[in-house]
């Protein structure tokens, strides 16, 4: 079942539930209110009949005159009818055919219809509850209302149970309202279906577009993008999808460059080895110690490249082993610097140590990996700083961060080169001698080591005219 069908059913069922609930509640409210209105009107008619009977009793000093004239009793009942002041002829004829005090007359079932006139539901009883106009068999069903004269009960008006909606207009009104509510409910159901379809289509369309774009992305087409036209969750989902597609496209491009760079880096030393070996085989170069040392140098360079690739792959996957402990990195950096002292002196590079720490600090780090980081950075400065140059190493505390800066002298770099310095296989001068430059993986490995220690590694042009490398590591104690 598609998402549009699910949305359609969900919206339709929700709206149908609301419409149905409103229909039944409105109908119940109307019936309750109308019933209260009719009951109030019925009570008013009862009070009016009692007033008429009290006046009649006062004029005639009793019920004897009324009891002998059934027509007067019928006339009195219909005088209080607000819509009809004369009794129907059919009622008069039936009443005359029955006993004098028999009331209400027996009507044929076909003539009663759905309602009984109010005048056919009342009886008159004397003060001792003897029947003046009524039927003995219906006495037990009566609801009695006393009739007073000079503060004395002189009789009772009995009301038979029945629907208080006793007017044809009332019945017609309720029937019309019931039909109207039914048609309104049917119309609302149709409208609900149309609205549910529209909402399902409206909300399902972007989801369908996202599904299609995701399918396109799964086939390897990373150029799939969605149009972001809303600021809601669906719009945010489309924006996140575009960001993911862009990241995958960039990752695919990086992978291709990575494979191409690896192929290029491996092909070059292998081509050199092949050329030298072919020269030896052809007798161009003699197989002596110098030739073997040259071949060994090319092999070692190839070995360093493969080792760098292996280390970089491990650091990318987070598979480098880290045995972190609380340690002071400054003595570790000093020991690594001491190992390079002879090389810096041979190249006549002046190294200046600047320690701005007032007390020892501790960080949570792996000593072996930190030493690998420091040695890679020192070797990079040694390799790329011109002879008779300068290297300044500054250590200081910046809030809760340990900051280590290595700033060397010329040659310098641009801001654009500094932004890509930690990209793998990136070289400031791609055409320079590989015996000097390496494969361009050392700084990428350094960046991964610093990231594994929750720190940051940045590069920028230095004030000495060369490169500034800044390491920031969080301080534990």
Structure in words:
This protein is an alpha+beta fold. The protein folds into three domains: 167 residues, no CATH class; 85 residues, Signal transduction histidine kinase, dimerisation/phosphotransfer (DHp) domain (Helix Hairpins); 150 residues, Heat Shock Protein 90 (2-Layer Sandwich). It is built from 14 helices and eleven strands. The strands form three sheets. It has a five-stranded mixed beta sheet with strand order 6-8-9-11-10. Strand 3 and strand 4 form a beta hairpin. The radius of gyration is 53 Å and the shape is rod-shaped. It starts with a helix and ends with a strand.
Number of domains: 3
Number of strands: 11
Beta-strand level of the residues, as a percent range?
5-15%
The sequence of SSEs as H and E is HHHHHEEEEHHHEHHEEHEEHHHEE
Helix content: 55-70%
Keywords: Kinase, Membrane, Phosphoprotein, Transferase, Transmembrane, Transmembrane helix, Two-component regulatory system
Domain Histidine kinase: 261-477
Catalytic activity: ATP + protein L-histidine = ADP + protein N-phospho-L-histidine
Transmembrane segments: 180-200
Keywords:
HisK_dim/P_sf; transferase; 5-stranded mixed β-sheet; Helix Hairpins; 3 domains; membrane; 477 residues; alpha+beta; Heat Shock Protein 90; 11 strands; histidine kinase; HAMP_dom; 4-stranded antiparallel β-sheet
What's the structural blueprint in terms of helices and strands?
Elements: H1 3-60, H2 64-67, H3 70-79, H4 89-97, H5 109-112, E1 122-126, E2 131-133, E3 143-149, E4 152-159, H6 168-218, H7 233-281, H8 289-317, E5 325-327, H9 329-339, H10 341-346, E6 350-355, E7 363-365, H11 367-384, E8 390-398, E9 401-409, H12 415-419, H13 434-437, H14 442-452, E10 456-461, E11 465-474
Parallel strand pairs: 6-8
Antiparallel strand pairs: 1-2, 1-4, 3-4, 5-7, 8-9, 9-11, 10-11
């Amino acid at each position: 079942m598609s998402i549009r069908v699910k949305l359609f059913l969900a919206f339709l069922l929700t709206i149908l539930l609301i419409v149905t609930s409103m229909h039944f509640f409105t109908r119940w409210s109307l019936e309750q209110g109308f019933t209260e209105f009719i009951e109030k009107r019925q009570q008013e008619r009862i009070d009016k009949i009692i007033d008429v009977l009290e006046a009649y009793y006062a004029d005639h000093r009793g019920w004897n005159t009324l009891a002998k004239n059934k027509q007067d009793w019928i006339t009195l009942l219909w005088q209080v009818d607000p819509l009809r002041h004369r009794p129907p002829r059919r009622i008069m004829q039936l009443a005359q055919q029955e006993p004098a005090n028999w009331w209400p007359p027996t009507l044929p079932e076909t003539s009663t219809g759905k309602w009984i006139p109010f005048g056919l539901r009342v009886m008159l009883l004397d003060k001792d509850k003897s029947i003046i106009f009524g039927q003995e068999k219906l006495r037990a069903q009566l609801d009695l209302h006393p009739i007073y004269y000079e503060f004395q009960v002189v009789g009772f008006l009995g009301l038979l149970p029945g629907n208080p909606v006793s007017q044809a207009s009332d019945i017609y009104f309720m029937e019309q309202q019931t039909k109207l509510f039914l048609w309104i409910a049917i119309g609302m159901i149709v409208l609900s279906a149309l609205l549910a379809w529209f909402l399902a289509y409206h909300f399902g369309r972007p989801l369908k577009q996202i599904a299609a774009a995701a399918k396109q992305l799964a086939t390897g087409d990373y150029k799939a993008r969605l149009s972001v036209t809303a600021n809601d969750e669906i719009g945010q989902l489309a924006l996140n999808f575009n960001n993911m597609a862009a990241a995958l496209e960039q990752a695919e491009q990086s992978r291709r460059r990575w494979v191409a760079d690896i192929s290029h880096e491996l092909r070059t030393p292998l081509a050199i080895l092949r050329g030298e070996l072919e020269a030896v085989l052809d007798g161009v170069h003699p197989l002596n110690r110098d030739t073997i040392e040259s071949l060994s140098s090319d092999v070692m360079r190839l070995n360093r490249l493969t080792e760098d690739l292996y280390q970089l792959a491990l650091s990318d996957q987070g598979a480098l082993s880290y045995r972190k402990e609380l340690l002071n990195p400054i003595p570790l950096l000093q020991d690594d610097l001491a190992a390079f002292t002879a090389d810096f002196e041979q190249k006549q590079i002046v190294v200046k140590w600047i320690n701005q720490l007032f007390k020892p600090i501790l960080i949570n780090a792996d000593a072996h990996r930190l030493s690998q980081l420091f040695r890679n950075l020192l070797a990079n400065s040694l390799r790329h700083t011109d002879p008779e140059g300068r290297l300044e190493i500054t250590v200081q505390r910046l809030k809760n961060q340990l900051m280590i800066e290595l700033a060397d002298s010329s040659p310098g770099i641009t801001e654009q080169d500094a932004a890509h310095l930690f990209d793998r296989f990136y070289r400031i001068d791609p055409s320079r001698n590989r015996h000097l430059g390496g494969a361009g993986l050392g700084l990428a490995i350094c960046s991964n080591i610093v990231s594994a220690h929750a720190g940051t590694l940045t590069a920028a042009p230095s004030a000495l005219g060369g490169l500034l490398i800044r390491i920031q590591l969080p301080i534990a104690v």
